Amino acid sequence: MPDTARPALLPVVLLHALPLGSLMWRAQASALRARGHTVLTPDQRGFGTTPLGAEPPSLDTVADDVAALLDEHGIQEVALAGCSMGGYVAMAFLRRHPGRVRALALFATRATADTPRAAAERRTFADLILDDTRRDHLVAGTTPLLLGAGTRERRPDLVEEVLTMAKGASPEAVAWAQRAIAERADSLPVLRATDLPALVVTGAEDELVAAPDAAATADALPRGRLVTLPGVGHLQPLEAPDEVTDLLTTLLDDATTPDRNGYGTC
Question: Where does the AB hydrolase-1 domain lie (predicted)?
Answer without folding.
Answer: 11-241
